[in-house]
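Work Package 3 committed the consortium to producing structural models of liganded targets before the mid-term review. Because experimental data for this complex are still outstanding, the team generated a predictive model from sequence and the ligand definition alone, so that downstream docking and mutagenesis planning could proceed in parallel. The input record is reproduced below exactly as it was submitted to the modelling pipeline, together with the SMILES string for flavin-adenine dinucleotide.
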Amino acid sequence: MKGITYQVAIVGGGMVGATLACLLANQGVSVALIDAGDPTETWADDSYDQRVSALTLASINVFKSLGVWAEIVRLGEQPMDKMFVWDHFASGELAIDSADAGVMTMGSVVENRLTVLALWKKLQALEACDLYRSTQLEGFDISEKNVDIQFSNGDHINASLLVGADGSSSKIRQLSGIQAYGWSYQQEALVATVKPEKPHQNTAWQRFLPEGPLALLPLRNGLVSIVWTSKPETTEANLQLSTVEFCAALADASEHQLGGFELMGARGAFPLKLQFSSEYCQQRLVLIGDAIHTIHPLAGQGANLGLKDAVTLAKVILSASESKRDIASQQVLRRYERQRKGDNALMMAMMDGFKRLFSADDTLVKLGRSSGMGLINQSTLLKNKICQYAMGV
Ligand SMILES: Cc1cc2nc3c(=O)[nH]c(=O)nc-3n(C[C@H](O)[C@H](O)[C@H](O)COP(=O)(O)OP(=O)(O)OC[C@H]3O[C@@H](n4cnc5c(N)ncnc54)[C@H](O)[C@@H]3O)c2cc1C
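The resulting structure, written out as tokens with the ligand in place, is given here.
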């Protein structure tokens, strides 16, 4: 293929890259969105994506502004109105209801592939966007005026700006030489979709266990999506259990809050790590989403952070484009970096701190956190603050 030229080429059409593509193409910026998979592929009605995200109201507002929220609702979103958090140690517990903060809901739980499908459907209708499905980035060459982007099928395109939205193992980050720092948590998250015996009550349940948190998120059709964090060897053992044994172990681990469970489909596992880059951009190249920050999923904030990156980068690009400046200059891209770095670093530090607090083995720390949860539970003001934080406001 002859190299078509775009203003922006985004590699990675997951939730973050596809949102950026929508924000830009909606305003007439010419965009190429490239993904190794095919997000428009259909699936059986009774199959569920293991990758699920709790979206804050702030993220939902982004999708509303793009006109894709109605499609996400049609495909199957689940409102989340309450949170119930409890500790395996002592009696610490925390119950938060969005109604007490005067709002209907804290956010919604959606399977990642539903959100991505709704975004890609929108992109198919936007003239300014070309979609490259089942297409792998192979390499790129940056020159003074543009970037030549090569695909593994031998094709290539050109763009003024290359965006790496290609996830935590970002090839763009690796090829650019941008350093990634961080550490493995020596934990794995077991993910699965289950049908609970009792209704989920639009509630996100989270129990802190000795090896890590067990989250049970309310999902469409009365189902529950679980994220069960443990040491890798425990996760491996739980993956090997028979379906009946696994459901019994899950019911015990959740103290039968939702009764027993029926497993819907396969179980999967993700190794957990903290990873970040201190450099977000180079001349004509910029990173967003998990490509620059991967955090512990215990408070479900990774995708929400990435969506904030997409919104900020789109604003900076659109403002440069309107004033006829080079959208890919260091001056423009550094503005995005400055605006996002503080918020991303704060969230990473908070998630890392929570992870350490709730996996501490020291009896004094355990007593402190248990009574701390009890104290917060008695304070409407603090609970409203936590509710606002969960809503992303
Ligand atoms: C167990 C678990 C639970 C989570 N729960 C939540 C939650 O409740 N709320 C929340 O906000 N976040 C949650 N997260 C985090 C969230 O899933 C991620 O932050 C989010 O998916 C990152 O989106 P992304 O678009 O940046 O990257 P990804 O979703 O990883 O997308 C990257 C895309 O790039 C494509 N790609 C990669 N390499 C190439 C290449 N060379 N060429 C072409 N395409 C390429 C891939 O096909 C993929 O589509 C959770 C994470 C885990 C592990």
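Reviewers should note the following from the model. The longest strand covers residues 181-196. These observations will guide the Year 2 experiments.
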